Amino acid sequence: MQVPKGKRVEEGHPTHTFEFRLIAAPRPTISWFKDDGTGPAPLEESERFLMRMIADVHLYIVELEVKDIQPDDEGTYKIEAKNKEGVAVASVTLEVNSKLNTQLLAVSSPYPYPESTGAT
């Protein structure tokens, strides 16, 4: 299975697609999982998570599209392709730069705030 590289994206990024390529016969059943550090959990298709499979004879292009990237999308995404001949498994990591962290970095100063003297 050809596996994409991990990716780091900004929170709010409109979309990111992971593409996996595999050769299989017969057609595999595809399952997706997400592990956010608490263990893998099945990932279901939704408005934000689109799953596609394009077939060309025995070549399959399998995609997971994540829309409107949010901090809780960060984690390891695993694909499992299964047929009567066996199972192929691969994973890829998505890292999300939070807007809050970016804003805090932009406004932080190397100098401490002056201490209050109590005088006004």
Number of E-type strands:
8
N-to-C series of helices and strands: EEEEEEEEH
Strand residue percentage: over 45%
- According to CATH, the homologous superfamily is Immunoglobulins
| CATH-derived topology | Immunoglobulin-like
CATH top level assignment:
Mainly Beta
CATH architecture: Sandwich
**Quaternary assembly:** single chain
Separation of the first and last Cα atoms: 69 Å
| Arithmetic mean of pLDDT | 86
Brief account:
Helix content is 8%, strand content 51%.
Descriptors:
single chain; 120 residues; mainly beta; Immunoglobulin-like; 5-stranded mixed sheet; 3-stranded antiparallel sheet; 1 helix; 8 strands; elongated
Can you put this structure into words, describing what you see?
The chain has one helix spanning 99-107; strands at residues 7-10, 15-23, 29-35, 40-42, 49-56, 59-67, 75-83, 86-97. It is mostly beta strands and 120 residues long. It has a single domain, classed as Immunoglobulins (Immunoglobulin-like). Strand 5 and strand 6 (59-67) form a beta hairpin. It starts with 6 loop residues before the first strand and ends in a 13-residue tail after the last helix. The mean pLDDT is 86.
Q: Topology, please?
A:
Elements: E1 7-10, E2 15-23, E3 29-35, E4 40-42, E5 49-56, E6 59-67, E7 75-83, E8 86-97, H1 99-107
Parallel strand pairs: 1-8
Antiparallel strand pairs: 2-6, 3-4, 3-7, 5-6, 7-8
